[in-house]
Specification:
By secondary structure, the chain is of the alpha/beta class. The protein contains six helices and nine strands; from the N terminus they run βαββαβββαββαβαα. The strands form four sheets. A three-stranded parallel beta sheet has the order 1-2-7, with helices on both faces. Helix 1 links the parallel strand 1 and strand 2. Helix 2 crosses helix 4, helix 2 crosses helix 6 and helix 4 packs across helix 6. The longest helix has 30 residues. The radius of gyration is 20 Å and the shape is globular. It starts with 6 loop residues before the first strand and ends with a helix.
């Protein structure tokens, strides 16, 4: 505002939605108005929800033209795929690539794998952001796919892209909310559009890229071992 910025995009998150609406794997898709009464997931969710409110107040008080988009599990090539900060699609792509390239078939999955999510490819995300910025819509808007799958199903789709059969090994680990899915009714109304890339296509692209990264990493590690020997 001080420097005369006319339009501002705030990238929010589905984590603004209350945990009490996400206790069942067969969750009712989340509409934008479901964010209230508020009970976001952890401090991250509160940060996102509070900044959404700030954006709306800055428009009301100062005329700053704001857009607010709530991402639902964006994934794709060129993203983080190792180190502990990667999301479920990238982590499973890495694990399955490691299993394939090492000749193993066991893949660890946190929890029972029946927790549910929807996943949106980054290319659709970019298209959605562009369309939102060209619109005059200033309220929070979901941006994600509305096809819900379990994490076990997600692993099977990735394994099919890899061309192998896997053995799922369920281990203790963080699972987040039990179920989460996007209601895209308002997205279609506001933008006249919704994400077009299927989960299978998006995961096939992502897996191919991550397998290549894993192959290169394994080659470097073998080379380092040979030098060390």
């Amino acid at each position: 505002r001080v420097h005369g910025v006319e339009r501002y995009l705030y990238t929010s998150s589905a984590c603004v939605y209350p945990e009490y609406r996400q206790l069942d794997a067969n969750v009712t898709p989340l509409k934008e108005e479901d964010a209230y009464p508020a009970q976001p997931q952890d401090a991250y969710g509160w940060e996102k929800l509070i900044t959404e409110r700030l954006c709306m107040h800055y428009y009301e008080d100062y005329g700053l033209d704001t857009r607010i988009v709530r991402f639902h599990n964006i994934f794709g090539e060129y993203g983080t795929w190792e180190g502990g900060r990667e999301k479920a699609p990238a982590a499973l792509c890495r694990k399955i690539a490691e299993a394939k390239l090492s000749g193993r078939r066991e893949v660890e999955i946190w929890g029972d794998g029946e927790q549910t999510r929807s996943f949106c490819h980054v290319d659709d995300c970019v298209e959605g952001i562009y369309r939102l910025m060209q619109s005059d819509y200033r309220e929070p808007l979901n941006l994600g796919q509305d096809r819900m799958v379990t994490i076990n199903e997600l692993a099977d789709i990735i394994a099919a892209a890899a061309g192998i059969e896997i053995v799922k090994v369920h281990v203790p680990g963080p699972q987040g909310v039990r179920g989460r899915n996007s209601d895209n009714t308002r997205l279609r109304q506001v933008l006249g559009w919704e994400p077009q890339i299927s989960l299978e296509e998006g995961l096939a692209r992502t897996y191919a890229w991550i397998e290549d990264q894993v192959r290169k990493k394994m080659a470097r590690e073998r080379e380092a071992e040979l030098v060390g020997a």
